[in-house]
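Open question from group meeting: does this chain pack into something compact, or does most of it stay loose? Before anyone orders reagents, we agreed to write out a predicted structure and look at it together. Recording both the input and the output here so the notebook holds the full record.
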Amino acid sequence: MSHTAHIPSHRKPRQRASKSALRAGVAGGVLSTIAVAGAAGPAQAEPVTQTIEMPTITTGLSTAVAASAQATQQVALDLETRAYEDAAAESAAKKAKKAQAEAVRKAEAKKKAEAKAKAEAAERAERASRTAERTTLSAPAASSSGNSSSASAPSSSSSTATGSAGAIVAFAKAQVGDAYVAGGTGPNAWDCSGLVQAAYRTVGIDLPRVSQSQSTAGTPVSLDNLQPGDILYWGGAGSAYHVAIYVGGGEFVGAQNSSTGTVQRSLDYDRPTGAVRVL
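Structure tokens returned:
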């Protein structure tokens, strides 16, 4: 056989055209059926014109959680702010109380200092007054006698007294060592005028109660002519602030103050301003 001879093909003949036609027929039938079914449906059915969206649950939940967290944070902030305010108020109250106590303390200290200064000033003025009065009283006595020492020693220096004067002196000396109490009239505590009044009462003489009146209760005598039983006074006549009893020998007995009580002292211990004689 010639190599150029035609060799028949073993492939089956294509049936593309017939199959395409068949497929087209089937598709057409299906479409026709669908069309018929659609035509047979209810005439009143309306086509869908809008889309309904379902709510997103996740988004709403996260919003609620965020709102709750914010509210909790705000409450915590409010509580913290209130705590700071309460602490500040308490601190301010403590400072105010402390400042008030300090102000009261300073006021009391100032009051005490002023009272002390006033007392010291009064004492200095009293001493100055006593010194001036002593100078006034001693000057005439010195000039009249021509002897400057006569004022310092009474002419009657004897400590021996008799009669009413002796009884007064004995009573006064018996009270030496008793306490001094302002307003005291015995029997174990005295003030200056209380002691003098009680001493004179032993001989039946009633003296005024206070030193101012006792300083004018008798006849004035000079300090260089004293006799036992005479009343000594410090300060002005009629305004004396202290009295005592001259007991002779250049000494007196008096209820001096709360520190010393009733004592017997020399006239030089605290020289009196003047004297009066009642007997």
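Observations to bring back to the group:
Helices lie at 16-40, 57-145, 163-174, 192-201, 211-214.
The two ends are 204 Å apart (CA to CA).
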